[in-house]
Amino acid sequence: MSSTKRAGDGRSPASHAADSHECIRVHGARENNLKDVSIEIPKRRLTVFTGVSGSGKSSLVFNTIAAESQRLINETYSSFVQGFMPTAARPEVDVLDGLTTAISVDQQRMGGDPRSTVGTATDANAMLRILFSRLGEPHIGPPGAYSFNTASVRASGGITVDRGTDRTKTVKATFHRVGGMCTHCEGRGTVSDIDLTQLYDDSKSIAEGAFTIPGWKSDNVWTVGIYAESGFLDPHKPIRGYTQQEMQDFLHREPTKVKVNGVNLTYEGLIPKIQKSFLSKDKEAMQPHIRAFVERAVTFATCPECDGSRLSEGARSSKIRKISIADACAMEIRDLAEWVRGLSEPSVQPLLAALQRTLDSFVEIGLGYLALDRSAGSLSGGEAQRVKMIRHLGSSLTDVTYVFDEPTIGLHPHDIQRMNDLLLRLRDKGNTVLVVEHKPEAIAIADHVVDLGPGAGTAGGTVCFEGTVEGLRASDTVTGRHLDDRAALKEVVRAHTGALKIRGATANNLRDVAVDVPLGVLCVVTGVAGSGKSSLIHGSIPADAGVVAVDQTPIKGSRRSNPATYTGLLEPIRKAFAKANGVKPALFSANSEGACPTCNGAGVLYTDLGMMAGVATPCEDCEGKRFQPSVLEYRFGGRDISEVLAMSVSEAEEFFAAGEARTPAAHRVLTRLTDVGLGYLTLGQPLTTLSGGERQRLKLATHMADKAGDKPVLVLDEPTTGLHLADVEQLLGLLDRLVDSGRSVIVIEHHQAVMAHADWIIDLGPGAGHDGGKVVFEGTPQELVTSRSTLTGEHLAAYVGRA
């Protein structure tokens, strides 16, 4: 008998067959470290996934549920359309049932392309361009005339027109497109300048060793040799004596084939060669002396032609009510929203309404302090995630699964309630909201909680708890035990040993700020999002202060890059293998002589199937181990090189500590990785799989090897990002050890545990954007709690139980 409700039959609507699909059912999930996880997640509820870093939260939510939903949706399009879409293989899972359309809003920073801004990333810029092309005076052209990504183009010449059999005709044609790009900076807003005095000593000749570039030795044919033997230059003439043509060839010559000592090489000018070999790489991935050279040699300045607006003179001259599109994009978004609200033109009313909704969403989500011309790459992970949320807030869609990755990242405790309200609003519209989160304030609003663990990496991947927040609090899981953790205020704080004096700071929204940042202590800089914290620390501390900043920006590298290569750990390991077996170290590199020839050391073979999902299959010859079989015969401490790269950091630390495999150089690096809470990572794990917080801690581990005297001031940008409650205590201990070792540690942070543990607090505000930019408090955490004179003081007092 059908269970479908018939008119007048008196059955309850609950008996309808469609109402049986009230859960997302996952059975046998094995993605990454998941161990046959089976779970049922209620629909139209807010479910929070928690657990220690590396326990498998993202593997379950993003790599399994969201990934499969996206894959199934993509398969509904035609083969032609699928050919233009990103593809992914089916996740490792037995059954996924009850899925709905999934929209992932992750914390990955937006691309670092200088042409990408807040406005271009949210379509607000596109709507503004149309608005100015309709209402701007004088009228200069279509929307592209107001785009800094569109160059002006002019062309003329003969074109061939086919008019049928034997009627081909050549006609003269002209083409003209008006673009808004500034021709001087090509729409970037900044121009880079290379300091030539840092590249060479012009009083010397090339033969006398004029080059001062790291690694450029006189016997290197690929660098110095090609300039000395190219025939374009006199290697024995001092560089300052070069003719105009010689200087042009030396600095700017286009790539040209030359023969040096019988070898065919490509000669090109020094400046393009430096740009390719140094400036195209991630500074953080460079060796310290190379990074120092790049910081000395390259400077970036605001474009003098467009004053940083990126726009041509024509685009800047066209105005609506005395406001140009450059002025509009430079306004804080909340001010721009008010300006748009004051425009009334019936011919563009639908456009004005859509633009108004977008701008109001920025304000509602707490990003009203941003400007549309803000570079997208400069946004923090939390800001980038909230910008991505903009397009979903006003959506009329329901029964959608929204997936968020730590949406409270970068939020002051004062702002977390606003984010919670937005998540609840999405749920109340009839959507399923899945949130990966660590903050107790965000966990508290959950309808359902899933706790993964019990540990990280191979020690995790199982569901430890499912149920309510109160049930989690009463459970004996790691999260349950630490849910109510509160760091206490320090009874005794360290004394300052000096101060970094900042005077007249005006970067971004700072208002002529004067402050002394204490040295020799743990100093926390806090304040609501957009109050000016990063502008004060990253933008105002003198360049010669010996500061090294460790942030969450992506580490450039391919899927071949891993923690072992990035930290330099692989070097002593390769040497140890080579010494023990009497062979060359290069054999133990999957990127060099030891690589499997079939997969070139990748471990997998990638098959592009056009519009279908590309397939990555383990290499049959090396079985995914990346090395030639002959290399795997060499062992060290009873393990081959592939087995070592498959170890976790914690396991490898123990392996290289003593016995036959004792390698002090490798052990020191592994100890630092463990100290920053990355013991669960495997040595060969691709860097592309790391979260923002993991990237920052990996960078921190590399900088811990630097001598305190070289870079005595360490700046950390929200180091608690991605840290479980149980790991915060370990981070506080690490910060203490850094200070006790002679470093000054400055932390930009919102987490109350770090604030309570600080020796000194600098609080900025009182609000965001033009409502911020002032120092509203300087002193110890105890004084801040006692005075409660700021929003931070009120929340910190409540946190430590002084409410």
TrEMBL record:
<dbReference type="GO" id="GO:0005524">
    <property type="term" value="F:ATP binding"/>
</dbReference>
<keyword id="KW-0677">Repeat</keyword>
<keyword id="KW-0234">DNA repair</keyword>
<keyword id="KW-0963">Cytoplasm</keyword>
<keyword id="KW-0547">Nucleotide-binding</keyword>
<dbReference type="GO" id="GO:0006281">
    <property type="term" value="P:DNA repair"/>
</dbReference>
<dbReference type="GO" id="GO:0004518">
    <property type="term" value="F:nuclease activity"/>
</dbReference>
<dbReference type="GO" id="GO:0016887">
    <property type="term" value="F:ATP hydrolysis activity"/>
</dbReference>
<keyword id="KW-0238">DNA-binding</keyword>
<dbReference type="Pfam" id="PF00005">
    <property type="entry name" value="ABC_tran"/>
</dbReference>
<keyword id="KW-0067">ATP-binding</keyword>
<keyword id="KW-0228">DNA excision</keyword>
<dbReference type="GO" id="GO:0005737">
    <property type="term" value="C:cytoplasm"/>
</dbReference>
<feature type="region of interest" description="Disordered">
    <location>
        <begin position="1"/>
        <end position="22"/>
    </location>
</feature>
<feature type="domain" description="ABC transporter">
    <location>
        <begin position="487"/>
        <end position="791"/>
    </location>
</feature>
<dbReference type="GO" id="GO:0003677">
    <property type="term" value="F:DNA binding"/>
</dbReference>
<comment type="similarity">
    <text>Belongs to the ABC transporter superfamily. UvrA family.</text>
</comment>
<dbReference type="InterPro" id="IPR003439">
    <property type="entry name" value="ABC_transporter-like_ATP-bd"/>
</dbReference>
<protein>
    <recommendedName>
        <fullName>UvrABC system protein A</fullName>
    </recommendedName>
</protein>
<dbReference type="InterPro" id="IPR027417">
    <property type="entry name" value="P-loop_NTPase"/>
</dbReference>
<keyword id="KW-0267">Excision nuclease</keyword>
<feature type="domain" description="ABC transporter">
    <location>
        <begin position="18"/>
        <end position="479"/>
    </location>
</feature>
<keyword id="KW-0227">DNA damage</keyword>
